[in-house]
Amino acid sequence: MAKESPSSSSSMPSVLRAYAAPIFIFVLAMFFQLFLLPRSFPTSHYDVLGVKTYGSEDDVREAYEAIASKWNSDSGDARPADFIKIQYAYELLTNPVWKRDYDLYGIDESLHIIEELEKQYAVEDFAKIKTPLLEAVSYEPEHEGFMAITSQDFASKFQDSKPWLIQLYSSGSNSSAQFSMAWRRIVDLLDGVANHAMVELGDVRLVTYLAEKKTTGQVLFRNGLPSIVAFPPQCKTADCLIRFEGELSTDAVTDWFATTVLELPRVFYHTKETLVPKFLAKVPPNKVRVILFSQTGERATPSVRQAAKDYWNFASLTYVLWREEDASFWWNALEVESAPAMVIMKDPGLKPVVYHGSGNRTWFLDILEQNKQLQLPQLSSTTSMELGCDARGYSRAGFETATWYCAVLVGRQSTELNKMRETMCRVQDALSNHDESDEASKDPSVAPAASAHKNKRLTLAWLDGEVQSKYCFFYVQSETSYDTCGTRKSPIDVPRILIIRYHRNATESANVEKKSSNWPKTVWESEADDVDPAAQLVVSYDGPAETPEIIKWLSKMVEDGDSKNLPFYRAKTPELVPESAEPMRSGVPKSVKATQALLRLWNRIKDYLADPRMGPTLLLGALLSACSVWWTRSRAIQQPVQTTQQSSTNQSDNNTEEEEKKKERKREQRRRNAKGEEAPASITDNEPKDAVQILSSGSDSD
Fold first, then answer.
1. Domain 153-261, what fold?
2. How far apart are CA 149 and CA 206, in angstroms?
3. Residue 221 contacts by C-beta under 8 Å, 6 or more apart in sequence?
4. In terms of pTM, does the model score above 0.90?
5. pLDDT per position as a tens digit, 297-349
């Protein structure tokens, strides 16, 4: 009996290691093909009736009648579970809308009924099962006022830049009909914020364009019907389309649309304990505070969140849930009687403005627009031109106004500044309420300032002396300017009131334009012309912080500025520094985005596991991998053999060449011996014994 060679037994593990990858891929392909794939393709309703796939309704009826006649003749062999499946398949495939949805999209939203009925009639006669099993639904959203679009008018609807929210539904879907009330509420909440429409599954072309696709290209409704998709602003193709994958509810859909699609900031709720430290104390001093009282505690609507984004630079919004036990607290603090209510808080010390009742979106936006500015506006880089407090600009009264004024309260953020802001608000109210038609009110100490304020030649504002330090030091030129401007270096804060007189001279402006047209200019001319077009004169108020005294001083400054011939002095005013904007936290948080990405990845993996092409693909991969391993091993085995053969061939060639040389020398020797001649001495031979040296005639021995 022959024994196995040690080399063959030791090479078997190496062969298995080499072919490990092909073997693993082959086993995976077999597991996929025999176990995973059949689960993804359960028995269809056509198979239950014994009808070919996509058979007609007549074929379904004939098959059902044949089964029913067989059962009637011998009902003892029929089981309730079989009857339920056959009856269900018959009702589904004889309804035109249900059959269409099942054939085209694989939708079978009532499949759970089979399992429920099987449990209910597990031990009873199938004759006791009540038919029909399914209740037909006819859902027509057009009758409810919803807008429907088709593939013919789809492109024409996307003319504006507004976002779109689209519902894919079926007229025979019970889930779509039940979602009707929620969709009505969603449409109302999105009024003015986004467009909305509905698409019926009968429009195969448009549904195929909008719906999700499997890896095979087949339309997929992963979460059933209805399916909701959205087009963000400026998006007009399916490449930027966003799908809703959450629970179908009014709150979930509107929050998803406002956060993910529109990327709107959230408006949070606060209690009476957290309102001051978490909201009022953190809102920048240049913004209006808006408090919305709610009875229900529901999320901020998309229109409110859109307003929070649009008015972000002017106002900050928050919600408060109204509780009856807190009614007295809110009345004493803000004079709020009940909810819903809207409270506007502007400058420090001013009484809040309260609006009771729930208005529509237009009412809400009108109130925000009317109250977006502080009563005493802040002078900043974005408001200087609008307020007329910029030497490079013009008066609020118009381009033709030559002389105008700006009274500015300057100081660092402090209690003293807030008190002076409250005083300046009273000054502004007094000037605004001054009635010139009243004979008693024609006070020469008030009339000039009131008239200038009414004609928009006098503007009152306040300036943050710490943020706008260069601008502040430019106007407050005194030994104590550090008490007002720049970073706080001592506990002393001294707000100051300045009045700036702006004056534009038509002659001087013409000369400036004439000089600017001349070219080239010298360095000195360029520096001299680099000044603001309007002349400025600044006066600081040093009187008591009382409203009548400040008004008298303003009137005196306006009267002198209008009547006296003051010098035309121009300078280069420092630029106002852009205020650091409050960061807007909008969009989906990163943690939620990561979770959604993992969920999409898992769904894609499940789609591949249900793809019938995966089995053959894995088998082909196993074959190619095995061929690659075989080719690599074959070349590795043949390479040493070829090297040995090449070495042997080279050695034999060298030996043959050497033998040929020896034979050639022997033949040459034999030819010389045959002629009897001696071989001539070579220069390499030894010196002969009888050799003598013969000297020439010209040698040295002569």
1. Glutaredoxin (3.40.30)
2. 9
3. 105, 107, 168, 211, 212, 227
4. no
5. 999 999 999 999 999 989 999 999 999 999 999 999 999 999 999 999 999 88
